[in-house]
Design brief:
Layout (H helix, E strand, L loop, with lengths): L2 H11 L8 H13 L3 E8 L2 E8 L1 H25 L5
Antiparallel strand pairs: 1-2
Organism: Formosa agariphila (strain DSM 15362 / KCTC 12365 / LMG 23005 / KMM 3901 / M-2Alg 35-1)
Pfam families: PadR
Protein name: Transcriptional regulator, PadR family
Length: about 90
């Protein structure tokens, strides 16, 4: 996807609960690209160059790792908020 498309997809998937500005998105995309986690492809659309971003294999692995880490964090927080009394 290209940058604006990413912002709109996030808004749609979260029913408007999460909104990412392009000003916040592009520095993150550039950082991920420099770390080898994103591949960028330039495509000419209506006489304009558009950057499309795609996860690399390393990006896919990092995403899976971060999602797993987030799940563990959420479980830990749930245990703190709602502890089971033994």
């Amino acid at each position: 996807m290209y940058g604006y498309e990413i912002t709109q997809k996030v808004k749609t998937l979260t029913n408007g609960e999460l909104s990412i500005t392009e000003g916040a998105l592009y520095p993150a995309l550039h950082k991920l690209e420099s770390e080898g986690l994103l591949k960028v492809e330039m495509v000419k659309v209506d006489n304009r160059l558009r950057k499309y971003y795609r996860l690399t294999d390393a990006g896919e692995k990092e995403t899976a790792s971060k999602l797993s880490e987030l799940e563990r964090y959420i479980q830990t927080m749930q245990q703190l908020v709602n502890p089971k009394i033994i």
